[in-house]
Amino acid sequence: MEKFKAFRVHTVDGKPVCKYEQLTLEDIDQGPVVIRNAFAAITYKDAMAARGVGKNVRTDRPAVTGTDLSGVVVRSEDPRFKEGQKVAVTNYQLGNQHDGAYADFSRVPGDWIVPLPDGLSLYEAMALGTSGLTAALAVDRLERAGLKPDDGPVAVSGATGGVGSIAVDMLSKRGYEVVAISGKAEQVEFLKTLGASRVVARDAFMADKSPLVSGPAYAAALDNVGGAILDRLAANMMPHGKVAIAGMVDTNLTTSVLPFVLRSVDILGINVSRQLNMAERRRLWERMANDLKPNHIDLIARPIPFSELDATMDKFFSVSTVGRVVVEVGASAPH
Fold first, then answer.
1. Which residues contact 44 (CB under 8 A, 6 or more apart)?
2. Which residues of 135-156 are buried (b: 16+ CB within 10 A; e: fewer)?
3. pLDDT > 90: what percent of the chain?
């Protein structure tokens, strides 16, 4: 039986131990569709699993981690998928309870798989992945709630992160005036290249503590942080403003009801886990291949070889990563 390379997390005395190993298909979790993985991505959840932060991976037996993958079907017992078909899988239990993306092969349930739409390469699919799907859902929900480019500026917090950078590009492409909020002064030009009209320093944005900021600045916002940032975004909303919440860096909620009552501000929760049904996933992937496809994927994402995966995990805790990191599991990314 053919052996292949995989990155697994073992739990030893309650602590994670990461190893590159040689496995066979019989060593990984079962699934009716076998995918030869081309690319994966690193999400914050993957870094947490590798470093034992939170409960993000099973501990009763070793786990191939990696929550996002793109690849080609090599065998399928599910009639919906054919050999040679390009596909993507994100979220569900991939990489935490079910062996995931950091291996040359994965075996997954058909209900988790999205056929890759025309207009997206396997590399581009992972440059987007969970972050792109989150940004796309946020833009989609804001627009379905009535947001239009003429309504006014749209703020994006955590703008240099995976979700934030993709959202800046998507919103700009859709014709919105985008205001990026970031604590990374060195990334101002990067954000403007993606389409931000202005970049506001996080400390300056947080300076006004008023429950309702006079002269409200934003028609809408995408919050990728939570906590005090969400409070300040709500206080800065125009009447009938809309805030999409995708971030949980700070899960505490300390704010005033005044923006929501006196300015009729709406809150939209954004979740692309199992709560997002497959029909919606496929529709959003189609949008990401068309009107929501970022103009600057080459700037938002950077490829790394499979061998650098473990070393790159730590950078997610120092908040030094910008955009998306794509792992070349079984293919070389375009440069």
1. 316
2. bbbbbbbbeeeebeeebbbbbb
3. 88
Residue with structure tokens 């790394």?
A: 304
- Angstrom distance (rounded) from CA 332 to CA 126: 13
Residues of the chain with pLDDT under 50: 335
Report in angstroms the alpha-carbon separations of 284 from 132, 175, 280, 287.
9, 19, 6, 5
Spatial CA neighbour of 120 closest among 108, 133, 111 = 133
Mapped onto helix, strand or coil, the DSSP state of residue 26 is helix
- Confidence (pLDDT) at 332: 84
d(CA 63, CA 262): 50
Per-residue pLDDT tens digits for 264-320:
999 999 999 878 999 999 999 999 999 999 999 999 999 999 999 999 998 888 766
Please check whether residue 67 is in contact with residue 43, taking contact to mean a CB–CB distance below 8 angstroms: yes
Answer whether 174's CB lies under 8 Å from 291's CB: yes
Do 328 and 305 contact (CB within 8 A), yes or no?
Answer: yes
* One-character DSSP codes across 137-169: HHHHHHHHTT--GGG--EEEESTTSHHHHHHHH
CA distance 118 to 184: 35
**Position 9: which residue type?**
V
Given its phi and psi angles, is residue 147 left (phi above 0), alpha (psi -120 to 50 degrees) or beta? beta
Q: Both tokens of residue 168?
A: 């800046």
User: What local confidence, expressed as pLDDT, does residue 1 receive?
Assistant: 64
- The whole-angstrom separation of Cα 99 and Cα 90 is 12
Phi/psi at 213 (5° precision): -70, 130
Cα-based distances in Å from 324 to 44, 90, 112: 10, 14, 22
pTM of the model: 0.95
